[in-house]
Amino acid sequence: MPKEIHLPVPLDRWFKDVKRTTELREVMGNKTLQEAVATLKEVAAPTYGSVTSDDSNNSNRFAWYAGYRDAFNDLHKLTHIKGEALKQPEEWNHIQP
After folding, report:
1. Domain range for residue 67?
2. Would residue 85 count as lying in a domain?
């Protein structure tokens, strides 16, 4: 059975879909998932013993770990509904960006 492929949703469309945002918030709020994420972050974190004198190896490990953490943090960011942009007061409308 072939795997179903989902195309990525553009970011602006993601935040317009309140149902998806709310559903992801419920998933991310699950205590078991939160404990699993915290455990994986802790296990993957570099330690004093894992840091070596090989700068190349350290760089790869730190870059991988940063990406790993960012993935979970970015998922969490997708659970917040974006508010409307702040309106400029009329007296500032003459300023062009």
Report:
1. 11-80
2. no
